[in-house]
Structures are given as C-alpha cells and as structure tokens.
Amino acid sequence: MKWIELKDIKKTYSGSPAVRELNLTIEEKQFVTLLGPSGCGKTTTLRIIAGLEEPDSGEIIVNGKIFFSREKGIYVPPEKRKLGLIFQSYALWPHMTVRKNISLALEQMRLPKDKIESIVKEVLNKVQLSEYIDRYPSELSGGQQQRVAVARMIAAKPSIFLMDEPLSNLDAMLRVDMRTELKRLHHELGSTTVYVTHDQVEALTLSDKIAVMDKGILKQVGTPEEIYKRPQDLFVARFVGSPRINCIEGNLATEGSGRYFKTGKIKIQIKNEAQSKMSTDSLIGTIRPEDIVVSKVEKPGWIKVNVFSVLPAGSETILSVKQDTINLSVKINGFTDIRMNESVWINIDPLKMNYYNKETGKLVFSYFS
Ligand code: ATP
Q1: What angle in degrees, to the nearest 10, is found between the helix axes of 142-155 and 98-108?
Q2: pLDDT tens string 7-22
Q3: 22 alpha carbon to ligand 1 midpoint, in Å?
Q4: By CB count within 10 A, which of 57, 152, 214, 300 is most buried?
C-alpha cells in the first residue's frame, strides 16, 4: 500500500536547485533510505516530508492525505503530520532525566500519568535501557543517548519515522551495534521509515529500498540487491560498494563466431542474450572486486596481471592488480600468500559484467535481472 508519495517535488535555494523533480513512492512499513554524497539533497527531501521546508512545487501525499500541494494551496504544518524525527545530534534535554526526556511529549499529549509511565518503561525496555531511566544525558554514552532519542521517538507512536544520519556521531563499533538494533526495531514495530545516510553500507544493511540521489536528482530506486548488482548508471555503480567497482573502458569486437568486450589484453566474452542489446561500440564494462578470481598458477584463458599492492584486512584481502594501463581491485577471502610485484592470473566472470554507454554513463546491459 502506498504510504508516502512525493510527486514532482522541486526545491531551490537562492537559484540553485537542491531537489529536482523528485518522484518517489514509499510503501507502508517499508524502510527506505535516501543515499548519496554530501549536498545531493537528502536532508532537504527529509525536511520536506517533515514539513520543515516548503517545496517550490509538487505534491506530498501521506496515507491518502495531502500534506502539501502547491497547486491546491495545501500545507499541513509539521506538528499536525504525526511524524517522528531523529537528527544527527540527539537533541536530548540535558537538564532532564531519561524518564522526563521521553515523557515530556506524552505529557503534552495529555495522557494519564500511569499510561505515560507504562509507555516510558515499555520503550526503554525496547532499546534495552530500562536501568538508565533516572540518569541524565551527560551520564550516558553517545550510543545510549541515541537510543534514548529512538525511545522518545517511538513513544509518541508516530505514523512515520524520519531519521537523518542518526548514527554518524557514533564510533564505528557502536554504529554497527546500532544498525542491528534499528533493524530489529523496524522488524518489531513495522513502522514506515525514511532514513538519510551517505554511508552505503548502512543503506545496504538496513533498507528494504534504497533511493540514490546525486545533485538533487533521484538516480535509482531499488532493493539493495538491485542497486548493488544492476546499477542504472555509473554514478550509482561507483557510489555503492567497497572497494569501488572496477570500470574498464573497451570496445566490442568480433572474433570468429564470438563477440567480445576488449581492451588491451583483456577479452571478455559477450553472451548471446547481451549481443543484441549492445548497440554502441564504446563501452564501460564494470565488475565487482569479489567477482574476479585469482590464481597463482597460469590457467588457460586467464589474464596475466602484476600485483601492485596487497591490503589484508582480516576477513578479506584487497589486491590491486595491473594489466598495462588497467588497474583492477580484486577481493579475496581471508589472508593470502600473494605478494607485491608477483605475477598472478585472474578470471573475470563474463556473467557478472555490466555494460554502460561511455558517453551517457547509462546502463546498456546487465545479466542480472
Ligand atoms: P549532507 O549529507 O552534507 O547533509 P545532503 O545530501 O543532505 O547533504 P542537503 O542538506 O539537502 O544535502 O543540501 C542540498 C543542497 O541545498 C546543498 O547544495 C546545500 O548547500 C543546499 N541547502 C540546503 N539547505 C539550505 C538552506 N537552508 N539555504 C541554502 N542552501 C541550502
């Protein structure tokens, strides 16, 4: 069921567009992440949904109710939208205990005292902070403060959660723990959530759908798997994935009865179904680092490369390899006895390649559908 609909949303600040003709539909209970680099318009979009910014044009519909329509002259103010908001800074009241920070909004809603107390206990239990109920924010760690902010948001039972980089102030370990907690919480509460981040791992791990933005333009909306395996253009391909996807410039060539994507000594077969779709000769082929296999011994048809660097990181090792002017990243599991300056052989799985138009950067063909 359609829950949030953004139609042709435009927002300009002093003549420079922050959001350009954004169209996005979010289904009920979905966790949707707005992902993109700094300044791409994520926060502006979230603030527009919250009612903290007015778009120049377009329409916002939430659960069938128009929240904003420039054409119809409708604007529902933020306090009437029943949304829960969490920003980067936890914005807890420093002079109030955890209990008071959570109960304040409930008191303003004029709920009975015993009801408030039971809600406070229930939400603190959800974020596993029951024993901290009488502490002040300064007596809590960053992660605990952020959990209080989450508890405060869910206590008011908003119809939608809006979160803007809520984990960015936390250290790397806590961020990973909080991701697990947020995911679990979303599973339990089933609340429609719009989440802003520039961290692609966070987007991939948390979301049902990811909306990738660049310079105010919505580039692609898809499941994490679609975004990762079938990026619609080179911007999305390069933005998502670490280490970065390999981009190889090349041309189509026919040899015997076969058709190939070729560059220097690299030759990758184009399978039948792809051939008819490849209209342009000048292409960029992409391959994820984990889709390249390495061998220390020569194998027929594999490509000989020189190892430029070896970066072990515990669970994986990233090799940077060179073939003439072409640099490729290769990801292998665990540690390796491959050393710098060695020659090794790589195999690129032709069915894991995606092909993009070199001029437009748009996807021409992907085997993943
Ligand atoms: P970040 O990840 O750095 O927060 P973002 O993707 O959330 O970035 P926005 O904050 O939405 O980006 O900003 C989009 C563009 O609009 C940027 O160029 C920004 O400078 C501009 N902008 C945002 N808010 C205002 C404002 N109140 N006045 C003027 N320009 C603004």
Answers
A1: 20
A2: 999 999 999 999 999 9
A3: 15
A4: 152
Say if ligand 1 is within 6 A of residue 47 CB.
no
User: Does residue 348 sit in the same domain as residue 212?
Assistant: no
Same domain, 212 and 289: no
Domain with residue 206: its CATH number is 3.40.50.300
Range of the domain at 305: 246-366
Distance 39 CA to ligand 1 centre (A): 5
Instruction: Tell me if 198 CB under 6 Å of ligand 1.
Output: yes
Q: Report the candidate in 219, 248, 221 with the shortest Cα–Cα distance to residue 329.
A: 248
- pTM check: above 0.85: yes
202 and 315 share one domain:
no
Question: Which of 180, 183, 184, 179 is closest to 166 using CA atoms?
Answer: 179
Spacing, Cα 53 to ligand 1 middle (Å): 12
Residue identifier of the C-alpha nearest atom 31 of ligand 1: 13
- Tell me which residue of 36, 4, 2 sits closest to 218, measured CA to CA: 36
Q: Indicate whether residue 13 lines ligand 1 (CB < 6 A).
A: yes
